[in-house]
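Why do we bother with holo predictions? Because pocket geometry can differ from the apo form. Keep that in mind while you read this record for 4'-deoxy-4'-aminopyridoxal-5'-phosphate.
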Amino acid sequence: AHEGILRRQSARESAARTYARALPIVPVRARGLTIEGADGSRYLDCLSGAGTLALGHNHPVVLEAIRKVLDSGAPLHVLDLATPVKDAFTTELFRTLPPGFADHARVQFCGPTGTDAVEAALKLARAATGRTGVVAFSGAYHGMTAGALEASGGASDVRVARLPYPQDYRCPFGVGGDRGAELAARWTESLLDDPKSGVPTPAGVIVEPVQGEGGVIPARDDWMRRMRDITSARSIPLIVDEVQTGVGRTGAFWAVEHSGITPDVMVLSKAIGGSLPLAVVVYRDDLDVWEPSAHAGTFRGNQLAMAAGAATLAYVRENRLAERAAHLGARMLAQLRGLAADFPCVGDVRGRGLMIGVELVDPVEPPESAAEAAEAAEGGAGRPRPAAPDLAVAVQRECLRRGLIVELGGRHSSVVRLLPPLTITDEQANAVLDRLSDAVASVVA
Ligand code: PMP
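The structure, written out:
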């Protein structure tokens, strides 16, 4: 069955297939971190539905919540009508939101993908401000429709200015650290303030607190606070895309809690649906300028997703899984940094909580200029080596051979990403690290 299914799907499915190319598996059963294939093979799943499965596959509380709705005879499809299931989800969602934000917030249910919620957020900011342009950051990923795609670095007719996103390893200014973040913040300020910059005051600034698809790049908290100050001072709505970072993933329930900022708009999806499709935008109530139907969608009322989502949010909150993600993530990062010390092809290890990236680079040191040698001698940032997407693909393949599913990301697809469920045990985390280390060792052997 396994081979036949793979063959038929690759013959019949579109060339736009992505995950299925690198992961030729046929999942038939799954529980927690583990997936079982049609051929009896077993895998530890650190892709987790692209970061969706905060509680892993088929968590009992999620299944129970879904069964309860099924057994109750409630309608499964309710457009945007009010229901007890929706009321319970909204109540739990507002309970988890940062208090300063939740007190004056409205939620809008969107077509069930993160992309649609991004689209709604961008349209809302444009409607609320009467302005058109949007500021996004280099390396961002916000989705695949025209507006979201443009904010991700694609092409559409929505005008988006892309400004530098600070990072240590491939700092756009070559300095990293506080100084790199400061330079990135000043760049944003000067572009917004210079009438000749071609960036008239935008309708909104959209930012990921940790760039996920962009290669797991956590923003510094002080830079996030600067973005808050810069946008507040100019009355520009700050849209925080927490589609991937939300629900405990980064070691706080919402990643904005790390910097303590209060956004104007939050875009939420993935884990909020407890593995079923659900996406919402939450925003300051005075931005709610929509006319009815200004942003609609048939599938806004998925009751199973709301029930699964409410159960997930409550479980993460009650069991303090964000704290668990912070502790375990710090330990995994520390161990992976040991890997970087052992293998020159591991250029960087970074992340926050259980959102972890390992960047593969060319293991051969390029010839160093005299100036760089002097800088390195003074403890400077040094020059990152070229990204090595081929090595990353090889590591992913070797991981799969060892029963570990990982995804790649980053601008050059050179970053191995780990997004395990927040319920992963210590022993399972050790098994993940062992298999990844073996895979890296095998590709450089
Ligand atoms: N924003 C971010 C930060 C994401 O990571 C993603 C998906 N990876 C999206 C938006 C788009 O979500 P979806 O794929 O559900 O449309």
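The domain at 2-59+321-444 is CATH 3.90.1150.10 (Aspartate Aminotransferase, domain 1).
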